[in-house]
Amino acid sequence: MTAVDDRMTGIFENLEVPEGLKAELLRGEIVMMAGPDLVHNLIVAEIQRQVPYARWRAIGTQDLSFPGDGSEPQPDLVVFERGAVEEHGRLLPAPLVTLVVEVVSKTSVHRDYRVKRELYAEGGIAAYLIVDPLKGECLLLTGPTGAAAGGIPDYLNEQPSKFGDPLVVDVLDLTLDTSEFRTYS
After folding, report:
1. What residues contact 162, with CB distance under 8 A and at least 6 apart?
2. What whole-number percentage of the chain has pLDDT above 70?
3. Which residue from 98, 89, 97 is spatially nearest to 171, judged by alpha carbons?
4. 0.70 cut: is pTM over it?
5. Read out DSSP for 69-99?
6. Is 78 in contact with 62 (CB distance < 8 Å)?
7. What class is the 35-176 domain?
């Protein structure tokens, strides 16, 4: 991490975000956005409800840390194995996370499909689920490549599905029911 990254991290950690807004630190940039709407929140709640509680913890709006990177994203939902994490502190180390979920909004399309895809793959997060109420589709990404020599980090496997179709999430041993997912009107 550079001195600029350290400064941005310090600013971000002391930032007072106005009510109704959300802030993330992505690759050294502070990104502010409007808080999510009802469709977004209902999708997150529906996914969280289906995650098998006996083995997994599923929590919303948790800041993640990425070793050596000036990023502290706040995914819409984070899933990790019970007992894998000490239950204190502000940041959850990305390598301990099994699945992250982002629900796309009109202003987050590029961040969710490109920036966070690369970031989560580089961080070794096993699965990244992009839920897109603009298109009525989900995209499950698995098999992170990490920081390949000179290459762009990415996921090896893409599993697209339409809202209403069941989505198999092997890393959680779960078939996700998407029949309650709605599109933005």
Report:
1. 136, 137, 138, 178
2. 84
3. 98
4. yes
5. SS-B---SEEEEETTSS-S-SS-EEGGGEEE
6. yes
7. alpha beta
